[in-house]
Write a structure and sequence with these properties.
The protein has a domain at about 35-100. Helix content is about 10%, strand content about 40%. It contains one helix and five strands. The protein has one helix spanning about 1-15, and strands spanning about 40-50, 55-60, 65-75, 80-85, 90-100. It has a five-stranded antiparallel beta sheet with strand order 1-2-3-4-5, with no helix packed on it. This is Pro-resilin-like 162. GO terms for molecular function: structural constituent of cuticle.
Length: about 120
C-alpha cells in the first residue's frame, strides 16, 4: 500500500511540474572574413655546425602571387635549393637545383655475427 501511495505521489509531482518553454539556441560566433588579399613576407634559417643542420625558407606573397625558396644541406654534402612560384593560373611551379658534388664515405663491411654454439 505504501508503494502505491509513493508511486501515485511521484506521478502527481511529475504532472504538476512546470514545463520550461523552448528557446532556440543563441546565434553562434563566426570568424570575420579577411579584409583583403593576403600580403606578407618572411625569412628564416637554421645553421647549426655541431649537428650539421643547415636549412632555411623565405617567401613573399602579394595577393594571389607567391614566390619563395627553401634549401637544405643533404647528408651527401650537396645543397638542395627549391625556388617556387604560385599563382592562380599555373599553380605551384618549382625549380630544383643542387650545388656541390655528392661525397660518399668509403665502404666498410659490417661484422658478421655467428650463432653461439648450443651445449647439451
Amino acid at each position: 500500500m505504501a508503494l502505491t501511495v509513493y508511486v501515485l505521489a511521484a506521478l502527481v509531482v511529475v504532472a504538476v511540474a512546470d514545463n520550461i518553454p523552448y528557446t532556440p539556441p543563441r546565434p553562434s560566433y563566426s570568424a570575420p572574413a579577411p579584409a583583403g588579399p593576403a600580403q606578407y613576407n618572411f625569412d628564416w634559417s637554421v645553421n647549426d655546425v655541431n649537428s650539421g643542420n643547415d636549412y632555411g625558407h623565405d617567401e613573399d606573397r602579394n595577393g594571389y602571387d607567391t614566390q619563395g625558396s627553401y634549401y637544405v644541406q643533404l647528408p651527401d654534402g650537396r645543397l638542395q635549393r627549391v625556388t617556387y612560384t604560385v599563382n592562380g593560373d599555373s599553380g605551384y611551379v618549382a625549380q630544383v637545383e643542387y650545388q656541390g658534388e655528392a661525397q660518399y664515405s668509403a665502404y666498410q663491411p659490417s661484422p658478421s655475427y655467428r650463432p653461439t654454439p648450443g651445449y647439451a
